[in-house]
Amino acid sequence: MEYETIIGLEIHAELSTESKMFCGCSASFGGGPNTKTCPVCLGHPGSLPVTNMKAIEYTMMLALALNCEITPRSVFHRKNYFYPDMPKNFQISQYDIPLSTDGHLDADMNDYVRKVGITRVHIEEDTGKSIHIGESGRIHGAEYSLEDFNRAGIPLAEIVTEPDIRSAEEARAFMQLLRATLEYLGISDCKMEEGSLRCDANISVAVDGKLGTKVEIKNMNSFRSLFRALSYEEERQRFALEQGGGLIQETRHWDDAEGKTHPLRSKEEAFDYRYFPEPDLVPIEPDPEWVDRLRENLPELPQARFHRFMEQFGLARDIASMLTGEKALADYFERAVETGQGPEELAKWIAGDLSAMLREAVVPIQHCPVAPRGLGELVALVNQKVISGKMAKEVLREAFETGKGPQRIVDEKGLSQIADAHELEVVVDEVIAENPGAADDMRTGKEQALKFMMGQVMKKTRGKANPEVASRLLKQKLIGRE
Amino acid sequence: MAISIEDVEHVARLARLKLTEEEKETYRRQLSDVLEHARKISEVDTSDVPPTSHTLPLRNVFREDSLRPSLSVKEATGSAAWAVEGAFKVPRII
Predict the structure, then answer these.
(1) pLDDT at residue number A385
(2) In a domain, B87, yes or no
(3) Residue B18 lies in a domain
(4) Residue A452 CB coordination number (10 Å)
(5) Which ipTM value was assigned to this complex?
(6) Of A45, A84, A125, A429, which one has the greatest count of Cβ atoms within 10 A?
(7) Confidence class of residue A142 from pLDDT cuts 50, 70 and 90?
(8) Ramachandran quadrant class, B68 (left: phi over 0; alpha: psi -120 to 50; beta: rest)
């Protein structure tokens, strides 16, 4: 039997407008409970929603970036349900005539490209936040819940993909590319941990080409949990199929601490949302000139930049992918390249040591204490053989911790390499005289002895000896060749 | 167009209404009449009329993305039956 995993994603991205979707309350994150509410987002009788034009514009930018068609005339619908996170008892969303349809986004998987169809991109409002109070701390068994409507009414773009994704790796790569696209467009904060970017998945396993039972997974709050949840669920479903057991269509909740999915509610009693057109809002008919202007003004998107980095700078696929995965990182790289140093070396430093330091210190690249110019300086020092590659790592750390420029650190600490053969010869002679045993070993061709002698030279020069020159001198003196 | 007692029960459950057997029969009859009326209207030939979701000849009513003052927490939660530390308190959900 041949198994094939089929995944489709449904993503919600909070748009970074100033005000909410249908009222003038602030759409910013946080604040005390219900400090950003008004009669409209609290659903008071008689209040009327008015559409935020910026939210429509942002959603159209996203739709165009995802190669979608903009619907000439789309409408809002009410999605009715009973749950206290929406005081109106309905959420304003779009239903059968969404803002845009039929796009695609192509995720680079290193040795192949996964083209993922975009079914639709539509606009809706976010719901409030519920905090469940009780011993369990979860919805089940809670004694009561506290409702905060600061989030209620924040504009959300909903992106629905076709079931084109074939593995947890592809789902993660797609999601990272989508996140980068939102970031490049500058229309969302994209913080999965804060909930401004959320993802649900539908996953099933087809057997010999026959479609399986679809399961919806919720509560994946990071790229890591998206990957883990889908890997777990794929395995669970395959195991059930191998055992000849059946699967039921249901919604499952990912428990990150436990590393498992649990059933949440059965799809058989799925909600009947009784959608109907929102009578308080009129249709959206975007002027074609507006759409054209947005299309023309789209910034360079992650995929285009990824390909440009490979072509223009000769970067390897994985490094180009990593750098362009975050706009600020790619910007940093391009500014460093302006110093005239080699792009490949700069990229290696950024993707390697610098990224590790940023991660460790939990500092975003925008606030990196080492400026792009500083990194260029560091690479120049290595290229001019003023310091060794190993020393450069230490200088970078020092620069990162103190904010001083690499050249200044080298000057202040007297870290310049001793590359002068005459100066080093004195040291090498001393080392040979002090270690006659090791010198003999080297003369008789023992490889290990060279390492030891080099260590002694470094010790005497406090690591400043140019390794190539020192090693050449040692070999000349002891084995008569370089 | 006839509505069954099961249909009434389904809609009542979605609307969180508890109905007596008598009420179910009353609503079954009334809802059937409403749908019958709609069926009657749908006899009109509308093949040349575009579907409408709104009765006004309006489109693209937008506002600029600018802030307006929100209510104070006291005003926001003042008329709530149950509120605690700025949050609306609601009975257990599930």
Answers:
(1) 78
(2) no
(3) yes
(4) 16
(5) 0.77
(6) A125
(7) low
(8) beta
Q: Per CATH, the architecture of A421-479 is what? A: Orthogonal Bundle (1.10)
Q: Are A126 and A90 in contact (CB under 8 A)?
A: no
pTM as predicted: 0.82
Query: In this structure, what token pair is assigned to residue A81?
Result: 């349900």
The answer to whether B81 contacts chain A (CB < 8 Å) is no
Interface residue B38 vs chain A (CB under 8 A): no
Place of tokens 């998945």: A201
Length of chain A in terms of residues written: 482
Spatial distance between the Cα atoms of A124 and A52, rounded to a whole number of angstroms: 11
Pairing between β-strand A250-255 and β-strand A215-220 as defined by DSSP bridges:
parallel
Q: Which residues, other chains included, contact A457 with Cβ-Cβ below 8 Å and sequence gap of 6+?
A: A424, A427, A428, A431, A465, A470, A474
Neighboring chain B residues of A36 at a CB cutoff of 8 Å: 70
Residues of A in contact with B94 (CB under 8 A): 139-140, 142
Which positions ≥6 away from A216 have C-beta within 8 Å? A200, A201, A202, A250, A251, A252, A267
- Identify the helix (H) or strand (E) that includes residue A458: helix A447-460
Considering the domain boundaries, does residue B82 fall inside one? no
| Residue that is written with structure tokens 């490889």 in the block | A447
Decide if pLDDT at A321 tops 60: yes
Total number of domains in chain B? 1
- Alpha-carbon distance A48 to A282, whole Å? 12
